[in-house]
Specification:
Layout: H1 2-34, H2 39-42, E1 60-66, H3 68-71, H4 80-91, E2 96-103, H5 109-115, H6 119-127, E3 130-134, H7 137-140, H8 190-194, H9 197-214, E4 219-223, H10 233-254, E5 260-263, H11 266-269, H12 273-276, H13 286-300
Parallel strand pairs: 1-2, 1-3, 3-4, 4-5
Helix pairs in contact: 4-13, 5-9, 9-10
Length: about 300
């Protein structure tokens, strides 16, 4: 009997102790819910990404650099995506000004790299807080007259000249024949289109980093490339592959910098070339530039 009595007492004491432990744990759990003390809440705040310029309330001061897309070639209204972006931002209530549009027909990465050494260009960049860059199309599509529509006599731009290069179609009068590539033109492959990519990508990296050095406070928006020959059977696959590789290379560069953004355009033109390209079958028309400007405004806001 005595053994049974002590056994029940021991069981009772263990039950009481377990109940006390559970009550203490419950009290601490409730306290943590009501008064959390997590490290992230009290001592460490997540890093904030840079706010879009338009969201800060600061006046937007734009400089545009690059090739004929920056200049607006192909737009019958002469606005291009740069002026359309300014007009669109102003219409939405943003205080916006254009410091300068330095787009040059036929400019390549080598040419733009040289331009960044000029004091006037550097001065304009320092006055801006938004820098729009479109370059690379003349590096990628630098071959002969792909559609055989008569662009003989065009010269490749060099760092010391502003001459249009083959493929840039400066005069904006090139007509789309709807035919394939010209007879006698060497076979177009991704390899032939991409032969300039490694060196051009290095120059693009130098360009973007140099712009950032000149004005570390500015936000830089780089326009990705589209394939203007996607409706030509011989150029669909190699053109798409080459443009995709170029855009991926640009993204690899831009991902390393918090003040840089890639503005994609490939999806805007893919399967819509008849609607958004000008008669030269290379540059956007007014509607095409409008779509680009909407994409730029989306990035800015």
């Amino acid at each position: 009997m005595n053994d049974s009595k002590w056994t029940w007492r021991a069981v009772s004491l263990i039950s009481i102790a377990a109940t006390i432990i559970l009550l203490v744990g419950f009290v601490y759990a409730v306290k943590d819910v009501l008064y959390p003390k997590g490290e992230a809440t009290l001592t460490i705040l997540p890093e904030q990404t840079a706010a879009p310029v338009s969201a800060t309330g600061e006046a937007i001061r734009i400089v545009a650099l690059g090739d004929s897309l920056a200049k607006g070639t192909g737009d019958n209204e002469g606005s291009g995506y740069v002026k359309r972006t300014l007009d669109g931002l102003t219409a939405k209530g943003s205080k916006t000004s254009l410091i300068g549009n330095m787009g040059i027909n036929g400019l390549t990465t080598a040419g733009l790299q040289s331009k960044l050494q000029q004091e006037g260009v550097k001065y304009a960049l320092r006055q801006s807080n938004v820098i729009l860059v479109s370059i690379g199309g003349n590096d990628l599509f630098r071959g002969s007259d792909l559609l055989g529509s008569g662009s003989e006599g065009q010269q490749i731009a060099t760092p010391d000249t502003e001459s249009p290069e083959v493929g840039s179609m400066e005069d904006g009068t090139r007509e789309s024949t709807g035919a394939g590539i010209a007879e006698g033109t060497e076979e177009i492959t991704p390899e032939s289109l991409l032969s300039a990519l490694p060196e051009a990508a290095k120059r693009l990296n130098t360009i973007l980093e140099r712009i950032s050095e000149i004005n570390p406070e500015a936000q830089i928006y780089y326009l990705g490339l589209y394939n203007p020959f996607g409706d030509v059977p011989e150029l669909l696959v190699p053109g798409n592959q080459a443009v995709t590789a170029w855009n991926n290379a640009a993204m690899d560069i831009i991902n390393k910098h918090s003040n840089m953004t890639l503005v994609p355009t490939f999806d805007l033109f893919n399967r819509h070339l008849g609607k958004y390209l000008s008669s030269d079958h290379f540059h956007p028309n007014g509607d095409g530039y409008q779509r680009i400007s909407e994409r730029v405004m989306q990035a800015l806001q």
